[in-house]
Amino acid sequence: MAKISTHVLDVSTGKPAGGIMLELHRGLFPVAATQTNSDGRTDAPLASAATLQTGGYDLTFHVGEYFRAQGAETFYEQITISFLVDDGKANYHVPLLLSPYGYSTYRGS
Fold this sequence. Notes:
Number of helices: 1
Shape: elongated
């Protein structure tokens, strides 16, 4: 089933990053707004087969609030990952590996 999903791992602690607010937009249009659970994932896909369209998406993670809640300083207030959906029938898993002063991402399965 086609969908957009994510998860966040805090590599500075080696644990899932729960409680991070995030938003998914397609152009100027909001698609989803939610937060990560205690496993660093969202409870439901950000977009499913019924709503997934081809085109550009922006996934914004509000990480500043997360690090402040952990009592940690951070360089980042928000991290936005822009990506392209070119097949409306495929899965797009967009993980975020996070630390206070760096991050990486990739297209997962």
